[in-house]
DNA sequence: CTGTGAAGCTAATGCCATTAGCTTCTCTCG
DNA sequence: CGAGAGAAGCTAATGGCATTAGCTTCACAG
């Protein structure tokens, strides 16, 4: 029998993610996680090596969540439809969880803990561009351009960086069209 | 006569900016600024209200610096030449000062301290697009798209977010061309 | 020559992460 | 059934940091 109220690394990350969603990255503190999980702060070290590591695991959780969400969004679609769906899904995720998105480091690829999760997310983007007949570095460039657009827009919107939210839907539609035209123009 | 070794708010921000450049935002601590300015930590409060305020002032400094740099870059140019110069200047600034760029909040527009500096920077972008005959909200959208691209690329590059730096120049050139084509297509 | 205000200092508080070392509980194996 | 080992939790202690309070000093103005 597994004990009932036992804390696990997963539960610690759950609590941490909730804190990030509610109060942003600055709100993620071991003291707060301890309170929320009903445990003394030093006890957390039985499940997590440090605050830094906990932050990394939260990042993994978010990256995996995004990957799942985006995969669902593009399943069964291809070409412009798939790209459009992916871009809308990306924005929708960030609008729904703005603080969470701001907490994910932009450079997960070289991180020991987050590397795999980051690469999987990139894979989804890369795969979505299949069918455009891009070869070698062309595909890499196209993926990068896509990432620049979705991340650029999302990170600004997540932090309220556009003045008024007036017409943001239009701006995003224009970005999507710009990207699709660009893909087409290079074929 | 003004005393020689007197600390001033400006000197405090100087030291803070150096710390950010060297060790990133996390490295910006009042204790470190105190050491670097040769003063006891509490003495800083004679010049700065809090660590948060100091961070905001560092942000202002960077925004002003960027504005100056970009203004120089586009002076005397117009149309595609001006846009290209602005985009290259943006990337060049961030490559030269990556940690500094990461320290600037993405939402300076609504901040009491940084609002004016943020708006001036946006003004430069907006003005660079003069001459394309964009009317009303068209100009707003075009400015936003430009910002999305330059910020998206720069923030990823600044944190080493692209896998290898292979071919990043090409990727950026493609983004510039994409944006220019987009501007042209809408005229 | 004096006194006032700014700039600096030391002492103290409180929050947080992290470490050390002890206790307790649970499951496994004899 | 009965240890005993290992995991998970706890309290106490340390050290870094921001911030506040209240004192001292010093340059300058009158």
Describe the structure.
Chains A, B: It holds the Pfam family TetR_N. The mean pLDDT of chain A is 95. In chain A, α3 packs parallel to α6 and α7 packs antiparallel against α8. The longest helix of chain A is centred in the middle third of the chain and has 24 residues. Chain A is built from eight helices and no strands. With 187 residues, chain A is an all-alpha fold. The structure holds a DNA duplex (30 and 30 nucleotides).
Keywords for this structure?
DNA-binding, 187 residues, Arc Repressor Mutant, subunit A, 2 domains, homodimer, elongated, Tetracycline Repressor, domain 2, MT1864/Rv1816-like_C (chains A, B)
Brief digest:
The structure is a homodimer of 187-residue chains. Helix content of chain A is 67%, strand content 0%.
Number of domains of chain A: 2
* Number of E-type strands of chain A: 0
Question: Which whole number gives the mean pLDDT of chain A?
Answer: 95
The amount of helix of chain A comes to 55-70%
Radius of gyration of chain A: 19 Å
CATH architecture of the largest domain in chain A: Orthogonal Bundle
CATH fold name of the largest domain in chain A: Tetracycline Repressor, domain 2
The CATH class label of the largest domain in chain A is Mainly Alpha
Separation of the first and last Cα atoms of chain A = 60 Å
């Amino acid at each position: 029998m597994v004990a009932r109220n036992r804390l696990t690394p997963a539960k610690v990350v759950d609590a941490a993610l909730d804190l990030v969603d509610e109060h942003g990255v600055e709100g993620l503190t071991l003291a707060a996680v301890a309170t929320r999980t009903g445990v003394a702060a030093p006890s957390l070290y039985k499940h997590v090596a440090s605050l830094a590591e906990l932050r990394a695991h939260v990042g993994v959780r978010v990256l995996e969540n995004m990957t799942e969400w985006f995969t669902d969004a593009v399943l069964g679609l291809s070409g412009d439809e798939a790209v459009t769906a992916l871009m809308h899904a990306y924005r929708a995720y960030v609008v729904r969880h703005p603080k969470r998105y701001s907490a994910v480091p932009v450079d997960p690829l070289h991180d020991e803990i987050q590397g795999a999760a980051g690469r999987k997310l990139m894979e989804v983007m890369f795969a979505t561009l299949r069918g455009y007949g891009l070869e070698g570095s062309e595909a890499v460039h196209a993926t990068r351009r896509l990432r620049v657009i979705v991340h650029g827009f999302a990170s600004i919107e997540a932090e309220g960086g556009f003045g008024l939210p007036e017409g943001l839907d239009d701006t995003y539609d224009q970005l999507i069209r710009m990207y699709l035209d660009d893909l087409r123009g290079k074929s």
